[in-house]
Write a structure and sequence with these properties.
This is Tight adherence protein C. By secondary structure, the chain is mostly helical. The relative contact order is 0.05.
């Protein structure tokens, strides 16, 4: 009987492993087929991501609709999150969840109340550290949206900084070939993904709708606080006013940006050296000394020349 039970268990786990193997193969084949269909039908992967992002925003909107009820309270209780600060964060983060300032302020209060309720439930259930949860859960609920939106802002600006040199080089090459700026931007952004594409796609849409070019440039500056990106847009505004060739502007900005990045890497490397020395001095060196001392003590106590063998 025991042998049958063991055999059944072995067969069960074998079937589970076989199922996982075939599932992995199926998912891999499905991904290859989707990529092939996208290549054949010329479906833009960026548009798929945008649709997925919009669906996620709709789901999040349904989940947070009750936050609107606390919007007025949230706008009055605005510690670390005044309305103009929230508006700037949402604008610079790209606002992927389609939040308004009022809903964001209400979301803070809603999460604060949820945190307070969970703290009370933890206290009633007698969970460990429940008295601390009663205090910290509301604070975490209030600060969580602020931390997440600020992290999203920082992440987005870093992505712009990463893609900007290649983008400027590509646009500069197109401009030198005789393509106009608007056509060059429309063509080049098709090969980029993320914030760079979002920003210049919106810029092109504003130009198509009749927005003055300088105003569209100013809107780009408002939506991004990346120093390199702002330097590029300001150079474009200046070049437009002074009549400087745009291709030359892109080329010079790309070279300056790469030089700035090299200097930043050198600066980071110089800052890393003292940190490595600090870790070596206070962590690696003491551990190494302890290991050597331990081996010496073990050799003295348990080795062939142990002190116990002298007696």
């Amino acid at each position: 009987m025991d042998a049958l039970i063991i055999l059944a268990i072995i067969i069960f786990w074998f079937c589970i492993l076989l199922f996982l193997k075939h599932l992995w193969t199926f998912l891999d084949d499905k991904r290859d087929v989707l990529e092939h269909v996208s290549d054949v039908t010329h479906i833009d992967p960026f548009e798929k991501k945008e649709k997925k992002k919009n669906r996620r925003a709709e789901v999040f909107s349904q989940m947070t609709k009750y936050a609107d009820d606390f919007a007025d309270i949230g706008q009055r209780i605005n510690f670390f999150s005044e309305n103009h600060m929230v508006d700037e964060w949402l604008r610079k983060s790209g606002n992927p969840l389609k939040l308004s300032v009022a809903r964001f302020q209400g979301l803070k209060i809603l999460l604060l109340i949820i945190g307070f309720i969970t703290g009370i439930l933890a206290t009633i259930m007698g969970l460990p550290f429940s008295q601390y949860m009663l205090v910290f859960n509301p604070a975490i609920g209030y600060l969580l949206p602020i931390v997440l939106i600020r992290r999203e802002v920082k992440k987005r600006q870093q992505l712009i900084r990463r893609d900007l040199p290649d983008f400027m080089d590509t646009v500069s090459t197109s401009l030198q070939a005789g393509v106009s700026l608007d056509n060059a931007l429309r063509e080049v952004i098709r090969y980029f993904d993320g914030p760079i594409r979002e920003e210049f796609s919106r810029f092109n849409q504003e130009i198509d709708l009749g927005v003055p070019r300088e105003r569209a440039y100013r809107e780009l500056l408002k939506r991004n606080d990346n120093e390199e990106f702002q330097a590029l847009i300001k150079a474009l505004i200046q070049g437009m006013d002074l009549g400087i060739p745009i291709a030359k502007t892109f080329k010079i900005q790309a070279e300056d940006l790469r030089q700035m990045r090299q200097e930043q890497v050198k600066e980071l490397a110089a800052k890393a050296s003292p940190k490595v020395t600090l870790v070596t001095t206070f962590l690696i060196a003491p551990v190494s000394i302890l290991m050597i001392a331990g081996l010496m003590i073990m050799n003295m106590l348990m080795g062939e020349n142990s002190i116990f063998n002298l007696f």
